[in-house]
Amino acid sequence: MLNKKEKAVMKSIYYNSVDKNGVCLLRPIDVLNDISPKIEIKGNDLKKIIHDLELDDYYELVESKRKGETVWCFTLHQKGQAFYREILNEKRWVYFKISMSVALAIGVFFLKLILDAIAGR
Fold this sequence. Notes:
The chain has helices at 4-17, 28-34, 43-55, 78-81, 83-119; strands at residues 23-26, 59-66, 69-76. By secondary structure, the chain is an alpha+beta fold.
């Protein structure tokens, strides 16, 4: 399971490469611009996250220099292409847990009413 910063970086990579058959060229500044301002990622953190996601087999990374600027070429692997589905499943799981908690709370409330009626309160 990815943390908040890794999800933000992976969303940026995924949305930039999904239209282009899973391949995209991005500069570090492009990735940082795509990320919400609420999530603060520094340059060194970004490199670590990028390489961690590569180790987790989300994509293949080729790093090169163009006019003295670092450019990353991302090629999504199967796990990277399934990233959107993973996010949807995670949301479904959260909704399921919330609905189960609400159902359990309602069930306990009715059980209390029944026990109070039996006890004659």
